Amino acid sequence: MTEKKLDIGALIHSAAGILALVMGGLMYFHAWALPVFAGLMLLSAVSAILISWRMDAWVPGHWLAMLPVVGIAVGYLYADWGFTVAYVCLWVAFIHFVVRGMQKMAES
Length: 108
Description:
Elements: H1 8-26, H2 33-55, H3 60-64, H4 67-77, H5 81-107
Helix pairs in contact: 1-2, 1-5, 4-5
């Protein structure tokens, strides 16, 4: 029997992503949530890059997953709507991974 190890990188990535979903909703009501949302999005992006590099798992979808970070950059450097783009992209990514997880479970 093989022993399963907890993947800290994946835990950080998923926790940052889920917390970013919450903070993204709060950013429309509380100013303090916006920098928290942006920071969590950056943490999630960096952890995704590290996981992809470590697992040698580069696929086109990983680059598309960086769109929320582009939205954060647009929000800070150009226009506030970039934050909404980031939040919408995060929800699309979250729904995608939930659907893919359910498909994998159905296959096994």
